Amino acid sequence: MIFYATPLSSYSAKVRIALCVKDLPFQEIQPPGGYRSESYRAIAPMGTIPALQVDGQLISESEVILEYLEDRYPEPPMWPQDPLKRAQFRFRARFHDLYFEPLVRRLFAHVPASKRQPPEVQHIRSELVHRIGQMRHWSMAFVASSTQQITLADCGFMVNIPLAAQLLSACGVEDPFPTSWIDWWQSGHQHPAVAKALAPWKQATQEWLASQISK
Ligand SMILES: N[C@@H](CCC(=O)N[C@@H](CS)C(=O)NCC(=O)O)C(=O)O
What we know:
- This protein has helices at 10-21, 38-41, 62-72, 83-107, 118-135, 141-144, 152-170, 179-189, 192-212, and strands spanning 2-4, 27-29, 51-54, 57-60.
- By secondary structure, it is an alpha+beta fold.
- The protein has 2 domains: 2-72, Glutaredoxin, CATH 3.40.30; 83-212, Glutathione S-transferase Yfyf (Class Pi), Chain A, domain 2 (Up-down Bundle), CATH 1.20.1050.
């Protein structure tokens, strides 16, 4: 399998978690010419990362890639078997992509001090906390699981909750999230496969923040 991704891409990190939890062999390649480029669009028409090439065929969209991996490599399972429970996990994954991550994305523009708009940062923070409040009705999969297994519903949050906290902190916001959420992702990051999957993303994120913060 060829995995088109970059170290800094949070959606790539989300998929890399599942590849590592399932211990699958894959070759990670940066999109030639960068994402959105003509040369990469010749491979992946959407121009987005992540993308997965399997037997010469391409799959785009992180959530679709995760579900393909689960269908094709069901061990260890990252979804429950029961259809109703599975639907609830799917809801969490969809909630992350549609309602949580787009808020996190908006913080990037405020990291350079010269471009920061503190009222907008505070607004995004309160929206994030509001969304977290909504999610609390569906306890997080990893914490709820007695087996401490990582599920597909965890992959996006494992990346974007700590990313949101880091971005808010870089924008001068202290203690952005409830302690239980910090405990949740820190315990998830100790899972050896998650730690391996997130190592390149953590380093790239640190480097990016260091390069932007004083701009
Ligand atoms: N919905 C997409 C979002 C992926 C995404 O936004 N990737 C970014 C990099 S992290 C990207 O490729 N951006 C280029 C673009 O949107 O044209 C997915 O889940 O795969």
